[in-house]
Predict the structure.
Amino acid sequence: MRYTIQQIATSLGATAVGDTSLMITKLAEPAQAGADDLALAMNPKYAAALAQGAAQAAMLWTDADWQGLGLKAAILPDRPRFAMSGLTQMMDPGQGFGTGIHPSAIIDPTAILADDVSVGPLTIIAAGARIGAGSVIGPQCHIGTDAVLGANAYLRDHVSIGARVRIGDRFIAQPGARIGGDGFSFVTPEPSTVEQTRKTLGDRGDTKAQQWTRIHSLGSVSIGNDVECGMNCTIDSGTIRDTVIGDGTKLDNQVHLGHNVVVGMNCLLCGQVGIAGSATIGDNVVLGGQVGVSDNIFVGDGVIAGGGTKIMSNAPAGRSMLGYPATEMAKQIESYKALRRLPRLIRDIAALKKQFPGVDD
């Protein structure tokens, strides 16, 4: 995979300067870059490391003094981090999956595969499934009965898509993603200790322990266009209606969505986020790592929740949140600061009490 500096810059819509005919074979960090590498020094704080490597060319920031850095050529994008998206796509060598249908794949005769679909070894595609044009289904995947994948889907190895799941175009699933398993939904013959505790916030009354009975998942999962699921994501089917994920939403590794959850468009759900059943997440929501969302609540459009936040009640649109339980981020930081001051306050109070011996504890 070899490109000239000019070819790369043109692809990115960026400015190329210097000897734009230099050939690039791969990307590298500044200190490790060789003569044929494009060093990534997109911020002045990384530029000093260029002297430790042997790069002749680098992607820098807009007004960088590339000649002063000893380079023969440079790429100067308007927004370097956004340029990384196109650059890494251009230089991605892929996973080496073969084209066409591997002979060990098992494809039901009633499944419909559009043009240019690739299917890897030991993959199973069940009856009535439909796979859109240009899709790549990696090794040891399972596509369930009547499932639908849109055009240009890309499934890495060991991905499972359950029966009747509907997925739009340009879907990406990383290894181990599981979409369309049954929801975690159980009930007891009489009101349970859990129901009573939730109702009273502690008093169990005369409820007794009982055996749990399964509620089956008759719904499935509906996913929009341009959605990505990270490694070991788990998305439960809905009980009656579908669990839903909107266009452009990205799920990190080990994210779990419970049954009947609705996630809006262009959301970012970071590692180990857990969203309990029937919660609704608005558009453009960002949930940091290990954020938890309680069941049957609403998180409004544009909410940002910092890592470890536990959202236990409805969150208004546009709110920045932190903590357990979640509060406005600025208020939570003030609470943290106050907590850190407590030992000093206790010492101050003890000193004051010594000055007034008659004061009670």
Remarks:
- The first strand starts at residue 3 and ends at 4.
- The chain has a mean pLDDT of 94.
- The chain is about 15% helix and 25% strand.
